[in-house]
Amino acid sequence: MFLLVISLFAWAASPVLAQEVNLNATVSENHVFIGEQFSLTIEISGESLRNVELPVLPELTGIRILSSTPSRGQSISIVNGRTSTATTYRYTLIAQQEGSYRIPPITVVIDGEEHQTSPIQVEVLRPGTMQQDSTDRMPDIFTEIQLDVENPVVGQQLVASLVIYFREGIEITSYQPSPGWRTDGFWKEQLENIEQPRAETEIVGSVRYRKATLLRYALFPSRSGTLTLSPFELHVSIRSEPRRNDPFGSIFGGFGTNQQRVTVHSEEMDVTVSRINPPQSGVSIGAVGNFQINRSISDTRITVGESVELTTTIEGEGNLPLISKPEYTFPESFELYQPQEETNLNRRGTTISGSNTYREVFIPRTAGTYTIPESLIGIYNPPLHGYDFRVLPAITVTVEQNPDEQFARTSDNFVLQPVSGLALWEEAQTGWLAEKPWVWLGFLLPLLALLIGYRKKRFVERLQSDSDFARAHLAREKADSILEKTKQEIPNAPVKQTYHFLHKAVTGFITDRLSLPAAGLSDREVLQQVESRSCPEDLQRDLKRFLDKCASISYAPVESEEDLFADLNRAETLLNKLDSHL
């Protein structure tokens, strides 16, 4: 009996020890389109599975995993008295690039042992590339980024339209763009839609679609070469009629409709940008578009020491955010102060318009008649592939002597003479220079004042003649004024505008201090310039994090004022460190 019992236990345990584990990986579609979602399902089955670890997905090419945490399901079945369990893991993937891709074997640890699935081949297609006899495999919904200009030049406005295509029978109930659409090398502004999106019909690959333009962006390339627009990701809630071959559609679809939320994205797009040759005459301020330029002065007849304001206004349509201030030639006797800049943008419609206003204050130090020379400003006109020129007439300023100052100078020159009979005058004794040190001060102070005045004059002349020196010297003052203006406008300004000014303050300080081009440099090129100056690694790391946040904050959720002020303080700290190392 003892031997019989032992044999029975051994016979019962042998299937458990030698049980077969089935591991299988499948995809919902082997042919998918760019921007289309599909699912990857991993199924593990066996009679006794005590411990199944989460599958380890390999790195995928051309395909992205939308969520690293899969949905999990488990089932138990009993057939002929034998119990088996099955565990499934389902991942949602999205196709990104056209081509043929291989999903490598997936590793799953089951009861302490590693098992692998077989590789899976997936073909990613571009919408409209299928043959007519395969139109039933065209995607139900996809998106595209469409540009209105094919070969732009630096600074030219491009309108990037996010267009969505969906089949008949599908209704879009809502959509939400993902934050952080990267447009490296472009200045980006979202245009405000004047009216609600309207759907119209279009045939794509022999399939009838409805399409609608959801969003529009104004893009301004800041450098030449091949620039890349990253895929635009969009979350869409759709409602569709149940398919005819779906017997459960009318039961579980909600009054005969299927409601679901899908994620689609456009494909990556390369844009070739050409450079603009400088004008043969006149001065270029980087303006591309249709602009008018005017300048005016607050008063043409003033006195010595009185401040005067010169205002330059640039208004029209085009790359207003990338335009630099016109540089004028001022007389040497004018003491100049840091100009103030004010930008007003209008984002309604299909183009960026508005105005830039520059206010420059100067104070004349000597009397006379002075002239601010005529300026010829070149504005590049893309349709004409050439420059339009705007002439700013010369301005004559008459500076008169201050009457009060003249009286004071006359009084200083009046010397009292001794009156005979009222006082006794004695001749100075020998050694009077040693006994009266104030006489030495009378000689030294004018000499010292002359030296200081000469150095001040040389400094002012260099500021006026050497633009690089002037930019480097005034870089911190300009950055501080931008931060101060940003701090005052934080309660009412949009988050995007706030981070634009923070980015402008930091990068503008670096380019001015290092005499780099005022526009056209990417964040990576700015970081390379800082690195070439042997700045500390922690400063380079903090600067990179700050610039990355400013670049990706455009469409992030609105932050609190505390967060905005914290980033403002980070910008001030960075400026202090950069000021001491550059």
Summarize the structure in words:
The protein is an alpha+beta fold and 582 residues long. It has 10 helices and 30 strands. Strands 21, 23, 24, 25, 26, 28 and 29 form a 7-stranded mixed β-sheet that branches. Strands 1, 3, 4, 5 and 6 form a 5-stranded antiparallel β-sheet that branches. The chain starts with a helix and ends with a helix.
User: Globular, elongated, flat, extended or rod-shaped: what is the shape?
Assistant: elongated
- Helices, by number, come to 10
- Mind describing the biggest β-sheet? 7 strands, mixed
According to DSSP, the number of beta strands is 30
Question: How much is the average pLDDT?
Answer: 80
In a nutshell, what does this entry contain?
This protein is α+β, with helices and mostly antiparallel strands and 582 residues long. It is built from ten helices and 30 strands. The strands form eight sheets. Strands 21, 23, 24, 25, 26, 28 and 29 form a seven-stranded mixed β-sheet that branches. Strands 1, 3, 4, 5 and 6 form a five-stranded antiparallel β-sheet that branches. Strands 11, 12, 14, 15 and 16 form a five-stranded antiparallel β-sheet that branches.
